[in-house]
Amino acid sequence: MADSPYNWTEVTVVGAGPIGIELAAALKQSGIPYRHLEAGPVGQTFTWWPHNTTFFSTPERIAIAGVPIQTVQQQNLTGEAYLVYLRQVIQYYQLKIQLYEPVEQLEPVPGGFRLRTRSHGGEQVYYSRKVVLATGGMAGPNRLDIPGEDLPHVSHYFRDPHDYFQQRLLVVGGRNSAIEAALRCWRAGAEVALSYRRPDIQRERVKPALRDDFDTVVREGRMTFLPATAPVEITPRHAVLAQVQDGQVDAGRLTHYPADFVLLMTGYTADMRLFAQAGVQLVGAGQAPQHDPASMETNVPGLYVAGTAAGGTQKQFTIFIETAHADVARIMTALCGQQWQGSYFAGGANRPKPNPYE
Ligand SMILES: Cc1cc2nc3c(=O)[nH]c(=O)nc-3n(C[C@H](O)[C@H](O)[C@H](O)COP(=O)(O)OP(=O)(O)OC[C@H]3O[C@@H](n4cnc5c(N)ncnc54)[C@H](O)[C@@H]3O)c2cc1C
User: Fold this and answer.
1) How far is the centre of ligand 1, averaged over its atoms, from the C-alpha of 169 (Å)?
2) Whole-prediction pTM value?
3) Ligand 1: which of 38, 45, 177 to mutate, judged by most atoms within 8 Å of the beta carbon?
4) b/e per residue, 163-179, with b = 16+ CB within 10 A?
5) What confidence tier does 4 reach under pLDDT thresholds 50, 70, 90?
6) Domain check: are 39 and 133 in the same one?
7) pLDDT digits (tens, 9 = 90+) for 207-252
C-alpha cells in the first residue's frame, strides 16, 4: 500500500457522473491541480439503466461543461447515447480519471484529507487539501427485506424487456420506472401484473403519457393491476401478496400470485458512508449532507458536495442533472476565492447568456 506524504493534491473529486465530470472540466480549465477517482466506469449510474431508456430531461438540460448535445431527431437521449456524450466530453477536455478505483475511506487530517482507495492494483492512499464528493444518490436498491428477495428470478434492476418474453412477470412499484418497465415488457410479449401498495399509482408523479398508456392497457384487460397489495415473500413460483389497508400490510389476507420473474422497482438509496466517516452531519430520513447551499461546502471545512449526493436518498427528485449544474459554479467560486469566471453554460447553444448558473 502506497502511503506517501508526496501523494498530496489540491482538490480530489470523487465520482465521475455528469456533475463530477463537469467539475473536473472546470478545474482543468482553471489550472487547479486535482485528482479524479471513480468507483466504476465513467457514468456508472447510466450503465445499469434499462436498455434504450430515454431521459425525461431534454438534451440541452443535461449537456455539461459547455459542450452542446445534438441528436438526429431532436429528441431526448437514451442512457447509452449519454454515455457516448460523456466519453466525448472527457476526450475533448483530455480529463484524466482514475476509473475502477472506489474511495473506501475518507478522513480529515491536518491540512486536508486522507483518502484510501482499493482498485485491481490494491490499496492506495492519497492526500488532498479539499475534497468534493459527487457520488450520486442511487448507489443501491431500496430493499424490501422480505424472504426470497435474492432469488435468481427476482431483480431490482430492469435491463431488457426481451428477458421476459412469454413469461409471467410481476412488477412491484407505482412510479415512472415501474410503470415504464411494466408497459415495455407487456409490449415485448410478457404477461404482466403490477402490484403497488397504494390504492392507485402515484398519478401526480408519473409522466402523463405513461399514465394514459397504463390506464388504457389496464382498462382493456391486457395487463393486471393489483392495487393496495405488497409482496411479503417470494418463492420460486409465486409472489405472496398481502392486502394493504391505510398503509398497513394485512398479513392475514394473502394471495399466492404466480410469477416466473419479479421486478422490484422500489427505488434506490444513496450511500452516505464517506460523508459520515468524514464527520458530515446527515440530516433527515434521506441522510442529506449538511452544507452551505451558496458554496456547497459541508459542515466539515474543505469538504464539498456536488450533484445528486447533496440530496442523500431523495424521496421526491428535486436534485437532478439540470438543477445540479450550478453546484459546479458555486464550488469553483469557493475554491478560487472569487466569482468563478468560467464560460460554461448549462443548456447548450439555445440557452440565454450570460452564465445562467447565477
Ligand atoms: C431510469 C432513470 C431515469 C432518469 N432520468 C433522468 C432525467 O431525465 N434527468 C435527470 O437529470 N436525471 C435523471 N435520472 C437521474 C440521473 O441518473 C441523475 O440525475 C444523475 O446521474 C446525477 O448525476 P451525478 O453526477 O450527481 O451522480 P451519478 O451520475 O450517480 O454519479 C456518481 C458517481 O460517483 C461514483 N461513486 C460513488 N461512490 C463512489 C466512491 N466511494 N468512490 C468513487 N466513486 C464513487 C459512482 O460510481 C458514479 O459514477 C434518471 C435516473 C434513472 C434511474
Assistant:
1) 27
2) 0.94
3) 45
4) ebeeebbbbbbbbbbbb
5) low
6) yes
7) 999 999 999 999 999 999 999 999 999 999 999 999 999 999 998 8
Task: Verify that 181 and 243 share a domain, yes or no.
Answer: yes
Total domains in the fold of the chain: 2
**Which CATH number do you get for residue 195?**
3.50.50.60
State yes or no: pLDDT of 70 exceeds 90: yes
Domain carrying residue 72: 8-140+268-350
Kindly state whether residues 153 and 94 are assigned to the same domain: no
Q: Which of 162, 358, 182 is nearest to 263 (CA)?
A: 182
Taken as a whole, the chain contains a residue count of: 358
Same domain, 133 and 169: no
CA-proximal residue: ligand 1, atom 17 (nearest): 45
Identify whether residues 122 and 237 lie together within a single domain: no
**Mutation probe of ligand 1 site: the residue of 321, 322, 328 with most atoms within 8 A of C-beta:** 321
CA–CA distance, 2 with 243 (Å, rounded to integer): 56
3-state secondary structure of 36: strand
| CB-based contacts of 177, cutoff 8 Å, min separation 6 | 158, 265, 267
Q: CA 97, CA 119: separation in Å to the nearest integer?
A: 13
